[in-house]
Amino acid sequence: MNSYSPQSLQYEPRGFQSKALAVGVVCLIITLIELFLHPTQFFRSYLFGVVFWLGIGLSCTAILMLHHLVSGRWGFVLRRSLEAAARTLMWMALFFIPVVLGMRYLYIWTHPAAVAADPILQQKQFYLNTPFFIIRQVIYFGLWIVLAYFLTRWSGEQDKTANPDLVKRMRNLSGPGLAIYGFTVSFAGFDWMLSLEPHFFSTIYGMLFVVTEAVGGMSFITLVAYFLSKREPLSEIIRPSQFHDFGNLLLVFTLLWAYISFAQFLIIWSGNLQNEIPWYVYRINHTWATIALVLVIFHFAVPFLLLLQRFVTFRRQYLAWVAGLLFIMSILDLFWLMMPSYEKAGPQFYWSDWLALIGLGGIFLAIFSSQLKRKPLMPLHDPNFVGVLQHE
Question: Exposed, middle or buried, 84 (CB in 10 Å: 0-12/13-18/19+)?
Fold first, then answer.
């Protein structure tokens, strides 16, 4: 096991990066047609796509910090993929700029006339106003990019110098980093999603947004591990026991998502408050109820039962199917959280929603692939990783 060299563990995209970039650019160019025809719909679609893919990069950064804190065997085979996803944040910050430019098409609280006519918006104006919104986004992205920068920079230095002190540095940063992540991403959820319906109020919504991202991010990174494990030499390094660990993490995040989702529903529904209850009334009536039922079954019940089975979690192809299902359900979950803010009578599946999602996804995957090939796929000079190789 110790005979592996950095060169033998280098990732080769084999044309994937250019294909993903081409698909992303073409889809985004086509989506731009909607900007000139129906600008409001364009910005709604764009927000849907950018929030989802930003969530993948953010949640992978959090999982990376979790790995540094616990030094579990599962994390070493995911670490370079997690770092590549974290490095997308500096690029995704640029793709968030159109959201800021199109705020007036997205958020009613950016309209002075609407605020003047609504007492609730007036009460929330100290927080929901354009200058403070922009300042918060600069702070969020600044903190996220700094965390990703140092975690990936020190990891790269470890490859070159094998300095054991770098392990402690990354661990020491990851503790407060996770606290910063939880705080900022919760408030980002309030800003990006919850403020689409500013009359609604929920203190648990931020945590729900964090966990929703975690399910999508863990699903994504599990699929990446599956595809990478089909090539040598990773096919010899990544073991069934490690896929079992991935499955356990997916199970934990799935249970958290179900618990927090139900807790928010139970509290609001039993309270029957006039400003909060409509948020759920729209989402469990009409055609939206069908999507809610699909989420209950395929975002929780089916994955929960499958992830309890060892024959699923120890077999990478079976676990990849479950991860793929959860990844798709994460997209649908974000759609269910966001779109009833605009379409209360039922879902309208606009072509721009899905083209924006695919377009931004193609660009995200191209950036992810370019970052992944910059380092060996395993942190060979990490002193803890040596023990993992020997154990295997």
Answer: buried
